[in-house]
Amino acid sequence: MNDVTQEQKTMAMLAHLLGILTGFVGPLVIWLINKDKADSGFVVDQSKEALNFQITLAIVYVVGIVLSVILIGIFINLAAWIACLVFSIIGGMKANEGVAYRYPFALRLIK
Q: For the whole prediction, is pTM greater than 0.85?
């Protein structure tokens, strides 16, 4: 991926960072816009990675909400939110460098 343009790096970075504010919607929009473009392989790869991570977090948030009845869900949601911040920022920084980032835990639902 040495031939990644600055525009592709920026779009990939946005896919990671938009997840902090929009959940899975931001990475989904970037993936849908770029999935059929032949020269957007890096953007498609990174937006799918960010999308998979945000879907995983959405599942964790739902489990946390259900478990908030016994109070442990509050801590699960707090940990998920912190993980979202930390890993999305790391992913955004790596994508801006042109390096493909893989989240340490994410269900690979979108192939």
A: yes
